[in-house]
Design goal:
It is a single chain. This protein folds into 2 domains: about 80 residues; about 325 residues, Porin, CATH 2.40.160. It has 6 helices and 16 strands. A 16-stranded antiparallel barrel has the order 1-2-3-4-5-6-7-8-9-10-11-12-13-14-15-16. α1 runs antiparallel to α2, α1 runs parallel beside α3 and α2 runs antiparallel to α3. The chain is elongated.
Length: about 425
């Protein structure tokens, strides 16, 4: 009898294997369990044999369910559950928020929460060489003449990304070289704008076409842990484009096109301590998008717009330092073509043994009209930030501005507690 029971148990186990190969085990499990209970009730199987078979059945079912879950996750990651047209899209966001208190000479202090930027980005790689980027920008217009309440929405980027023959070509509403380069080196855009953007010299994006590429390939993965791949050419790189001129938040008023380009070199890429040294030049040439003011020239003509920066930077795992010297004439929207000058120095340092904590500082001097005495101003920034995660960086900062003379503007002190959320 015992031999017969063992024979039937083997038959049942074989049936499980055959049945499992024909249908999902999780669906067959209840029926097989009832069959085992029936055989036990007829004394064909002992209690021990029945328990052993049920344990084996449960273990096989768990393995099958785990395998099915992994297959579903893999399919979901590949977007196989989506219609073909929606597969491959990636969503991202960048948020700059802060509380600030600003004390200005002869004016009351501020005490306010601000959402300085909220970008929503949708990207897709159509194939190995073609991709797209659409980025919307929620912003506060800060315009007393605008009576609408709340944030407004505008388009920041919308371009095709073409990667062929080691060159990246962008067409549409695309980044401008200066801001793209500064953002790759300086991680504190959440505290204040980069130089040309903050001074109103050139917008961060504009309608046009650009080409970008490295010279000699890119540096290794260890360097890219703390540096941006887009400007990590082994011996340097370039980024040149032709743009409408007025920027992403203005309409074009003339038919002039603005040329803007960047060239950077890395003189010592094989020397570990100096592989992060980069020397760069950025130039922009064209016409302003605004007519001359009556006191500055013919009101039917457009002022010249010329901007130049020479720049040196050094990126290391624990620090980054950068210096810029700017000179130019006019801006992208100026109603005059005054000569301008500016100097910027900034940097950050990770605190040893507490690498997520960084101290940062920034100084710049700007003179919007070198033909007038005492018309410029100095700005100082000092702060601390903490990398809670790759995506989240809170910071505290103090900013002070001193004008060369009172008519040029009002001095101020500003305290900030803010954050950057980016993924």
């Amino acid at each position: 009898m015992v031999g017969k029971a063992r024979f039937l148990g083997t038959v049942v186990a074989g049936c499980l294997l055959i049945w499992g190969s024909l249908t999902p085990l999780c669906a067959a499990e209840p029926d097989v369990a009832r069959l085992i209970d029936l055989l036990k009730s007829k004394n064909i199987l002992t209690q021990q044999e029945a328990d052993s078979l049920l344990t084996e059945l449960d273990a096989d079912a768990k393995k099958e369910r785990a395998a099915m879950q992994e297959e579903m996750k893999a399919a979901a990651n590949k977007g196989e559950f989506l219609p073909p047209a929606l597969r491959g899209f990636k969503f991202g966001t960048t948020i700059y928020g802060e509380w600030n208190s600003k004390t200005t000479d002869n004016a009351p202090s501020t005490n306010q929460f601000n959402l300085n930027r909220a970008y929503l980005t949708l990207t897709k790689d159509v194939n190995d060489w073609l991709g797209m980027n659409v980025t919307t920008d929620f912003f506060n217009p800060n315009d007393p003449a605008d009576n609408r309440d709340g944030l407004q929405l505008r388009l920041k980027f919308a371009y095709a990304n073409v990667n062929l023959f080691g060159v990246t070509t962008q067409l549409g509403m695309i980044p401008t070289p200066s801001d793209a380069y500064d953002s790759a080196l300086w991680p504190y855009r959440a505290q204040s704008a980069n130089l040309w953007d903050g001074l109103g010299i050139q917008s961060t994006s504009d309608l046009g076409i650009s080409v970008q590429g490295p010279i000699g390939g890119t540096l290794d993965a260890d360097y890219l842990k703390f540096a941006a791949k887009s400007f990590a050419g082994k011996w340097g790189g370039y980024y040149v484009g032709i743009y409408n001129g007025p920027g992403f938040n203005n309409s074009e008023n003339n038919h002039n096109k603005v040329f803007s380009g960047l060239v950077y070199v890395r003189p010592l890429p094989t020397t570990p301590i100096l592989r992060g040294l980069q020397l760069a030049y950025v130039g922009t040439y064209g016409k302003s998008n605004s007519n001359f003011a009556a006191a500055s020239g013919p009101v039917t003509d457009y002022p010249d717009f010329q901007a130049n920066i020479v720049q040196a930077s050094l990126q290391q795992e624990y620090f980054t330092i950068m210096g810029q010297y700017y000179w130019g004439k006019g801006t992208s929207l100026a109603t005059e073509q005054n000569d301008r000058r500016g100097v910027l120095l900034n940097g950050f340092l990770r605190i040893p043994t507490l690498e997520k904590l960084r101290v940062f500082g920034k100084y710049y001097y700007y003179d919007p009209n070198t033909d007038r005495a005492d018309f410029g101003y100095k700005t100082y920034v000092a702060g601390l930030s903490y990398d809670v995660a790759t995506e989240f960086m809170p910071f505290v900062a103090f900013e002070r501005r001193d004008y060369d003379s009172l008519p040029a503007g009002n001095d101020y002190d500003k305290y900030q507690v803010g954050f950057q959320l980016k993924f």
